[in-house]
Amino acid sequence: xxxxxxxxxxxxxxxxxxxxxxxxxxxxxxxxxxxxxxxxxxxxxxxxxxxxxxxxxxxxxxxxxxxxxxxxxxxxxxxxxxxxxxxxxxxxxxxxxxxxxxxxxxxxxxxxxxxxxxxxxxxxxxxxxxxxxxxxxxxxxxxxxxxxxxxxxxxxxxxxxxxxxxxxxxxxxxxxxxxxxxxxxxxxxxxxxxxxxxxxxxxxxxxxxxxxxxxxxxxxxxxxxxxxxxxxxxxxxxxxxxxxxxxxxxxxxxxxxxxxxxxxxxxxxxxxxxxxxxxxxxxxxxxxxxxxxxxxxxxxxxxxxxxxxxxxxxxxxxxxxxxxxxxxxxxxxxxxxxxxxxxx
Length: 344
Known about the structure:
By secondary structure, this protein is α/β, with parallel strands linked by helices. The chain is built from 16 helices and 10 strands. The chain has helices spanning about 1-15, 25-30, 60-65, 70, 85-95, 105-110, 155, 160-170, 185, 200-210, 235-240, 240-260, 265-270, 280-290, 295-300, 310-320; strands at about 45-50, 75-80, 100, 115-125, 130-135, 150, 175, 190-195, 215, 225-230.
């Protein structure tokens, strides 16, 4: 069960890293009416996550468990993701009011499609994508991985591999196919495997009996945000107060989940996702906290959920220079900070 739950996290990251297929027509019809209210006058918001319930969603479940949403006049329902679930399509169809964006590619892909959806908050200042190597005292940074074989999924080759090549001069002939099985990595002491901070390192340590060398891309400059809240422009326009309240409550939830007692949120997570185990939750939350995934970077300066134009420009620059996006793409349309606490 632990392996299945951990493997699910990896699958989520690999599927979503490579982009999102969405029709502009569908997203153009995203609701422009006010959100419904319940019998007690609370605004109903359905929020779609990018995968099954896990520690990486802990702040949202904490806000739900603690009543942070309810105190702000919201009736929030968290809709779990999973295989075959496409968050932008849920937004397009009006099946949810808000959705989660896993990385900075997703909002920019929506801009490229001409879709009226923006990132309105980023609760992971660091994308938890990592590279994993065998223990080796000579490895002091990612630059030391030159010439080694990289086990990468197809989606990753069109995502963070672009940044790695631009920054370190790695070449495509280093790439080997990654099929979500650690056996090829374990069999080759020079191999480098992609992973997720809260997932593969834990699995490898438990199954192989050694602590792998882990390089968090964000700590070496990878500029992608993660765990973003995405909103259709129509919803944001017609429900500005509710959107601000959702972001403020989510920020409170993430603060309490990382710095306080996560028990209430973890109980909701395990109820929603019975495959999740307490040991996976505990180690994931510890890594989120110890590595400043939530509260470093822009969040340390401007508050949880913060985004800046400088970070978005840095991400766009490296991806457009690699011809992922045209140089004249309106990258600023990918995000807005007007609904963050203290703004507007």
